[in-house]
Specification:
The structure is a single chain. With about 250 residues, this protein is an alpha/beta fold. Strands 1-2-3-4-5-6-7-8 form an eight-stranded parallel barrel, surrounded by six helices. It contains eleven helices and eight strands. Helix 9 links the parallel strand 6 and strand 7. Helix 1 runs parallel beside helix 2. The structure holds phosphoenolpyruvate. Phosphoenolpyruvate binds next to strand 8.
Amino acid sequence: MTIKPFIAANWKMHKLPSEASKWASECVEALDNNISDDVMIAICAPATHLLPLSDSFANSPVSLGAQDVSVHKQGAYTGEISTDMLVDAGVTYVIVGHSERRAYHNETDELVRSKVAATLEDKLVPILCVGETLEQREAGNAKDVTISQLRGGLKDITLAEASELVVAYEPVWAIGTGKTATAEDAQEMCGAIRAELKTLYPEIADSMHILYGGSMKAANAAELIAQPDINGGLVGSASLTVDSMVALVEAARS
Ligand code: PEP
């Protein structure tokens, strides 16, 4: 089955809100008018940037994403942002379980699973991140760790709920390091993820997006996305300038 490639940018904690709109209009201007026929695009931005970006991306091929969400609907949760708030701000995608949140905010599989559920309940699309550390890879546990995170994040998520879900395989040792996984290694892991999705959601697994993330850039994107179980990328550093983002999108198209 052919799956339209999806490039999701993770801006992390970069750029100012005042810079985001200019970036967005330059990016939309630089993208080919027919790009949405060939590639899906999302920018996952800090919360402060979502409203200005929502205006800038209106009627464009670019969707908006958030980088995290609360499991709570509303109430006394200082600093948290709810799914309703994201929907109202024009958001479509939410990164859930990024390794930086697992590492620096102690996010467990249980919490990640609750965030996946909260996101789906409000018709947002989670981009569920899974992947092993270097230590786990070197110990020969890359697949076990990654599949266990996948199972944990999707526990009791039904077929109907999962239909739009995106999974991102992000080996932690490749994120922000400039060390990209080889296409063979990335395919092996994404193939294992697809195989697990087939046991969980046999009816839809072949059409689900599995992204690779970890120092993806225009120079390596085409080879990675040509792999049978890699349907796009979750991209940090290489998404920050308009030129490299547009080059990546074009590489995904080829
Ligand atoms: C990421 O932030 O998810 C990521 C993959 O970053 P980078 O592309 O910079 O490795």
